[in-house]
Amino acid sequence: MGRHDVYRRWKKSREAAGIRCTLTFAQWCDLWDEKPGAYEARGRGGWVTAQSVIGDGFVPGNVEIIPATEVFRRTMDEHYGGERDYLP
User: Is residue 16 within 8 Å of 8, Cβ to Cβ?
Assistant: First the structure.
């Protein structure tokens, strides 16, 4: 599957979830290209797209490529009020 197909599936899934997504294909590619090797390692357990500010959507200036584990950490921090007691 080519990059354009991956982008279309990514964008469609965000929109189906009701998340605003105005990032163009070129902008999306630029983000992935900023992290060498990340695109090839994308997905669960690898690298993912994330909103810098949750709820603002996948719009220019609010999207970053981060390790999937960081998404988990952010979700847990939000749930537990920033405390890291849930970590071993």
Answer: no
Give the span between the Cα atoms of 14 and 21, in whole angstroms. 7
Indicate the burial class of 60 (C-beta count within 10 angstroms; 0-12, 13-18, 19 or more).
exposed
Angle separating helix axes 3-16 and 25-33, nearest 10 degrees? 110
What are the tens digits of pLDDT across the range 35-60?
999 999 998 789 999 998 888 999 99
Q: Which two tokens stand for residue 55?
A: 């709820």
With cut-offs at 50, 70 and 90, classify the pLDDT of residue 2: very high
Burial (CB < 10 A; 0-12, 13-18, 19+), residue 63, is buried
